[in-house]
Amino acid sequence: MIQLSFFSSRTLALYMARTFLVRTVAVLAALVVVLQTLDLLGESGDILAYPGNGDAALWHYVALRLPQIVARFLPFSVLLGTLITLVSLNQNSEVIAMKAGGVSAHQILAPLVVASLAIAGFSFAFNERLVTRASATLDRWQAVDYGPLPAAPRGAQDVWVRAGDDIIHAASAGGRGAATRLAGVTIYSRQAGALRRIIIAPQAQARLDQGRVIGWRATGAKLFDVVSGRLAPPSSFDFGAGVSPEQFTLSNVSADDRSLLQLGQEINELDAAGRPTGPLKAGWWHKISGPLSAVLMPLLAGTAAFGLARSGALFVRAVIGMVLGFAYFVADNFALAMGNLGAYPPLLAAWAPFFLFLMIGETVLVRTEE
């Protein structure tokens, strides 16, 4: 008689979950060691090329790169850990014994799915607390060619904004709204596509009209006339009519370097400024759907658990499970790329592969075993 409970028994569920978790962690550790070693070999020359860098710099790079590798390959480890677990259970006839005792295919996979939910929760917290910070720090370190690590910037750095024909560059932009301040400002004033004037100013601030930003004013600006070749004495210079503060402060927002809450806040500010946020919204949703991909792996790899091992088809079943798992990652990356290009809506780009392969895995399981 088929049991209708979610788990067939507590003992069996704990046994399968423990086996699955141990093998997943073992696969992840092996992948991380190999990939971190290869990555370090590729970057060690650039790191040691900077005068004064030594073993400490190499270990610092490992500490920053390791969270990124763990986050990227954790779903692959879950897939391989599931396949190894199910193949070994099938080879030892443990699956046959469970089915003979009235345990359904879904009940066999249920402990693995629940354990995968725990892995997904860990992955989400790990990404939010460690990966985003490590990615931001590593980006700043690589930007100075592995030299002395600069302090964490307050606001945006190296910002380029177009205002009509003019091009504005700010070395840094800090603050929010009307309190935004620009430092190291260079304005390339053009007419009909030809450069006419270059204005350089140490700082600039917003010009207000009834509390609303209507433009920008640079103080201590030096104006160089390209046509006449004359340099005017320092003075105030108004520029950037219609350019909002968010175009400076939120010009280089990266979903990888922001937590879920930070990214959501910056998306709202960009929406209020009327700027496109499709790729960032896709990245926001993917911060949730990405870790949840671990839950799909037991279902997609479930074909390796069933069928007689002596029939010679066990290897084929394992390959099918692996192909389904890797096909999900290909589809997920493709959909996210389409979302970044604006071809897919953000919600579809982040969730369509997940639900598509959820249905595929469930269909394969039901048609073959239930």
Automatic annotation (TrEMBL):
It is found in: Cell membrane. The chain crosses the membrane at residues 20-38, 69-87, 108-126, 288-307, 314-331, 343-366. Keywords: Cell membrane, Membrane, Transmembrane, Transmembrane helix. It comes from the Bacteria. It is a multi-pass membrane protein. The keyword Transmembrane applies. InterPro entries: LptG, LptG/LptF_permease. PANTHER family: LIPOPOLYSACCHARIDE EXPORT SYSTEM PERMEASE PROTEIN LPTG, SLR0882 PROTEIN-RELATED. This is LPS export ABC transporter permease LptG.
